[in-house]
Amino acid sequence: MRPFHERSPLVIGAVGLAMLALVMVLAFNAGSLPLIGGGTTYTAAFSEAGGLKPDDEVRIAGVKVGKVTGVDLEGDHVRVSFQVKGAWVGAESHADIKIKTLLGAKYLSVSPLGERPLDAGQEIPISRTSAPFDVVPAFSELTRVAGQIDTVQLARAFDTLAATFQNTPAQLKRSLAGLSTLSRTIASRDAALRTLLQRTRDVSKTLADRDTELTTLLSDGNLLLREVQSRRDIIHSLLRSSAQLAVQLRGVVQDNARQLGPALAQLQQVVDTLQRNQDALDRGLGLLAPYLRVFTNTLGNGRWFDTYIQNLVTPVPASVSIRPAPPACTVPGGC
């Protein structure tokens, strides 16, 4: 093989760029690769989406085996694409959209039925799929429909119906009168009922928007309860030991009541004395500060007392002359 310095730089650069582009394409489509990807892709036809979204879980017997990759409208039904990895899906399998949490999160449940495997890309027909009832759109639709009802006209209709059947038997007359009373009550509470339905819809929407946070909260609470359950014996032993300690302390107090009573009484007298002399104690602590400062200055230069005594030595008068000492003899043999 020829060395690189003898090859064309243009060819080497083009090959390098092509390899980089290939690596990038493989990285962005890693989920579709046969060995390291997300698994085998299947589709299922549903009458409605039922709140299912891409990236929702796919479960078989309650175990997560993949995820939803797409939810698209196809004619008069919804086409759901999903991937399954490490699990067997039969040719007679059923697919159901089920509720994951009480707040409306969904997942795709697959029942692997059949004697042969389902081919990759093959669709599960709508006859073997089902979608759940979604409570949030139901409240929204109920609010919309209830808001369009003319409660006053409804009350008048019931009044007219009661007047028309006034000569009917007593049982039917009482039933119609009750319906008329009920309609009047609903009409008088129309604004309150409308507000109630509107707020119910707002609460349902808020809970649906906070589904992830509430799911995490419930999961953390479950972990806490699980940990408390695992430590039940330790907590039980601790509470039992605490109860025994309380019994022992009560016994100690009862056995030493004669000694503890006078001791507590004397302690109370000491506390009363300190409280009566609180001003004197405060003043003593205030006067102690200058003494400690002077004492610290006295001992602050080392392991000795640093003191000064005035007029200890008598000063020399100015009229007294002091003769200098004779010079030292420097001649060998004497002076």
Name some characteristics of this structure:
335 residues, alpha/beta
Structure description:
By secondary structure, this protein is α/β, with parallel strands linked by helices. Among the domains are: 1-37; 40-132, no CATH class; 138-209, no CATH class. Helix content is 51%, strand content 14%. It has nine helices and eight strands. The chain has helices at 9-28, 135-147, 151-164, 170-188, 190-209, 211-230, 232-255, 257-276, 278-298; strands spanning 40-46, 57-60, 63-74, 77-84, 94-99, 106-111, 123-124, 129-130. Strands 7-1-4-3-2-6-5-8 form an eight-stranded mixed β-sheet, with no helix packed on it. Helix 2 (135-147) runs antiparallel to helix 5 (190-209) and helix 3 (151-164) packs antiparallel against helix 4. It is extended and about 125 Å long. The termini are far apart. The mean pLDDT is 76.
What's the N-to-C terminus distance? 111 Å
Largest sheet: 8 strands, mixed
Strand content bin: 5-15%
User: How many helical elements?
Assistant: 9
Residue windows where pLDDT falls under 50 for at least 5 positions = none
Note the run of SSEs as H and E.
HEEEEEEEEHHHHHHHH
User: Mean pLDDT, as a whole number?
Assistant: 76
Q: Classify the secondary structure makeup into a structural class.
A: alpha/beta
Shape: extended
Helical amount: 40-55%
For the largest sheet, list the strands in their spatial order: 7-1-4-3-2-6-5-8
Radius of gyration: 48 Å
Number of strands: 8
